[in-house]
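Final report, closing paragraph on structural work. Over the funding period we assembled a curated collection of sequence-structure pairs, and we close with a single example.
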Amino acid sequence: MNTAPEADWPDEFTREEMLEQHARLLEEECRMFQEELSRYRKNMARLIDMHTDVSLERDRLRAELRETAARLSDTLQDNAALANRIAGLESCREQLEALHKAHRAVAYFRPQTQALSRKHPDA
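Its predicted structure, as stored:
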């Protein structure tokens, strides 16, 4: 029985040939890893660009939201002022209507009072 390790191999490779094959396999593996690393770096750069774009848009929208909130606050204040003015004007209108009603009532009863005064000069 042959105890030499080379006897188990179907083809007899020398040590140098095995090392060369191993080196080629390692080089191919390194090349594949380098390509994968480049792809990941490109993906990361795209993600960074996307993050930058989204961050800028977020900041723009935040500023727009602050501006809209300020306009809403101003509009609500204007609305409250107008509501107060309307309430005051309605109160004036009600008072004016009451005065007109009282004036009509006085005018309605005045001719009757004058007619009675003419009939009774002593009164």
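Residues 65 and 71 are 10 Å apart (CA to CA). The chain has a mean pLDDT of 88. We thank the funder for supporting this effort.
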